[in-house]
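We close this part of the discussion by returning to an individual protein. The sequence in question and its structure tokens are set out directly beneath this paragraph:
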Amino acid sequence: MSWAGLWTPRAKPCNDMRHRQVAEGGFMTESTRFDRITFDSDVMGGRACIRGLRITVGLVVSLVAEGRSNADILGDYPDLEEADVRQALAYAAWLTREEVVSA
């Protein structure tokens, strides 16, 4: 399988695009930085991807949910790093977090 062309340098980190309003609204803390999660409308339909690669957060989370080990995932996707898998899981957890904000 050829991995050429999977990297898209135009991709922007999560903090700079779709979730900026969340950061400004107080939901995102200083410790919640997703610098490996990127969005680019020209890559995977704008879905959350890992470092501009054509590997979505959803794919990584699905593989973990299926019981695949980090070693298996990294072996099948050599452009991924262990920190990518951790941050994909952290991002998914952050998206599902329920927070109550007083008006």
In short: The chain is about 35% helix and 5% strand.
